Amino acid sequence: MVDDGDPPKQLTALDTEVWNDVDDAPSTDALFRALANRHRRRVLWYLVDDSETTIAELADALVGWEASDNVIVGPEARRRVYVSLHHHHLPMLSQADLLTYDADSGAVRLTTSSKPVEDVIRFSHRYEHALARRDER
Predict the structure, then answer these.
(1) What region holds the DUF7344 domain (predicted)?
(2) Does residue 13 lie within any of the structural domains?
(3) Of all helices (H) and strands (E), which one includes residue 59?
(4) What are the two backbone dihedrals, phi and then psi, of residue 41, each rounded to the nearest 5 degrees?
(5) Domain range for 52
(6) Which of 33, 88, 103, 113 is the most buried (most CB within 10 A)?
(7) Residue 96's closest CA among 125, 123, 120?
């Protein structure tokens, strides 16, 4: 199969227009590296629905998700998540051009408005939930 960079022929004209909306999108490798980690996926899921937040709100949301995953969440959980967001996950997502993170103010903002990128992020959410439901059976 030759990859000429064009969308698959099955896409409609509208789909083709949407898939050409990648001016502010990260590279394919950067996007999928970002989605390869559960915390980073969840940060992106949160930001797709609420494009501006703070690291404190993200830490609370991620700890809540961990609690709903039946993971024991102790008093250190929020601090641990906050530190991992601050030192690792948010800088990586920023370097991938998916968000901006101001360490001084704690502000976090989704920077991509690319429909294909948002579609991939939303798909990862639906896919992870489908697998969780399958595993519960």
Answers:
(1) 32-109
(2) no
(3) helix 55-68
(4) -60, -45
(5) 26-136
(6) 33
(7) 120
